[in-house]
Structures are given as structure tokens and as C-alpha cells.
Amino acid sequence: MIFQVITIHIRHQRGGVFHLRIPLLLVWLLLLPVALLLLPVIFIACLVRRVDPFRALSAFAQILGALKGTHVEVGDGDSSVLIDIT
Amino acid sequence: MNENRMKILQMLATGQVTADEAERLIAALEKEPPASPATDGSESRPKSKPKYLRVVVDPEKDNSGGPRGPKVNIRVPVQLLRAGVRLGSLIPVQARSQVNDAMREHGVQFDLSQLKPENLEDLIDHLNDLTVDVDDKDIKVRVFCE
After folding, report:
1. B74, B82, B92: residue with CB nearest A51
2. N or C end: fewer C-beta atoms under 10 angstroms in chain B?
3. B49 touching A, CB under 8 A?
4. What is the pLDDT of residues B52-98, one digit of tens each?
């Protein structure tokens, strides 16, 4: 299943905190028409590059699906960056 | 009849517990899960496949109590490796040879065309046993699967 929420948390050395939690359901719904419009372009580009378009789309979908559970957290002193995909 | 139940009945017979208490004790015994034949963990269970590749970097603390370096905590789903290899198999042959040449220039003798999804399954199966521990005076690095 595709990921639903991205959390981005940035803490600055000066003390500022930026916290963003994006529920992606709306984003996916908005991107769906764009993806449908781009589909023929991707198809043609794949054919030009001699890549199987179905395999390419399948691999891309698998990458999107596999991103769920990714967690990256890097901190140094008072500053830190956290990206969590759930 | 098992040993515990026999003890409870003996306690009831000698009047150490009432009939109600004995009934409750027996009911509690019945709720307990049966003991496994090998309780020392020696029996080999099928290993579950790893779900995540973890990279953890823990800096040691300096004299002032602050960390001596950056702290890193990364969790990458193993499924992402699979998807990446599938995407890699789509790389056109010309581009693949260019990537191989570039890696060879940097001293990495690796052929991308040899990386196939079935090979990756073997690799992932063996990742379960992988643990890399690096202990330095300033920093500790751990790479493992969970």
C-alpha cells in the first residue's frame, strides 16, 4: 500500500523548529489527473528509449509502495532533520 | 493430570484452600499457554525475513556532555531495495555499460547486468545475519537488519 503521511521535522541551531505533517491522500487525488495526462508522454519516452513502459511503470509503482516505513534522522548538536514516511 | 493441578487438589484436601479458591486456581492454570517442548530456545524456528535495513550512528559524549559528532538514524525498507533492483534492470544496455565503466574507474569491479531480482532474494535472506558494528573513541556505527 502506498504511503499516506510524510512528516518533516527540522530543528535549527538557533532554536527554531519547523514541523510539517502532510496527509497525502489529497495530494494523490490531485496528482491522479496529472498522472493520467502524463501517461502517454511516459509511454512514448519509454518506447523511444527502448524500455518496456509497463515494466517501467510497475517498477515506479513498486518504489512508491516500498517507501512506506522509511525513516531518516540526522542530528548534529542542536540542529536536526527528520523525515518519516508512513 | 498435571503436577500443578494435583498440588491444588492436595491443598484442597488438606484444607489449605477453599473449594472456590481451588476452582479459581485451576481456572488460572487452564488459561496458561502450554509449555513449549524446548524452553531453552534451542529449537530452531523459521527465521522471519528482514523488513528494514537500519543504519545507526551514535556519537560518544565529550567532557561537556555534548555529542562528539552527528547522530544518524536511518531505516530503509528492504522492499525498496527490491524495487530499486527491478528499476535497475530497466536501465538500457548502453547506460549500464557507462555505469559499469564509471564504477570501474573508481575501483569498484561490479557488473550491473549481473544484479538480478533472484540474486537479490538470496542477498536479502542472508541480510538477516548481517550486523556491522564499528566502535571508535568518538562514534559508534551499527548496520543491521530487523
Report:
1. B92
2. N
3. no
4. 999 999 988 877 777 778 899 999 998 888 888 878 777 877 788 88
CA nearest to A7, candidates A58, A68, A75, A76: A68
Residue B132 near residue B143, CB atoms below 8 Å? yes
Partner A contacted by B65 (CB < 8 A): no
Lay out the sheet containing A5-11: strands in order across: A17-23, A5-11, A79-85, A71-76, B71-77, B52-59, B139-145, B131-135
pTM tops 0.90: no
CB pair distance less than 8 Å for B71 and A73:
yes
Of B66, B70, B84, Cβ closest to residue A63: B84
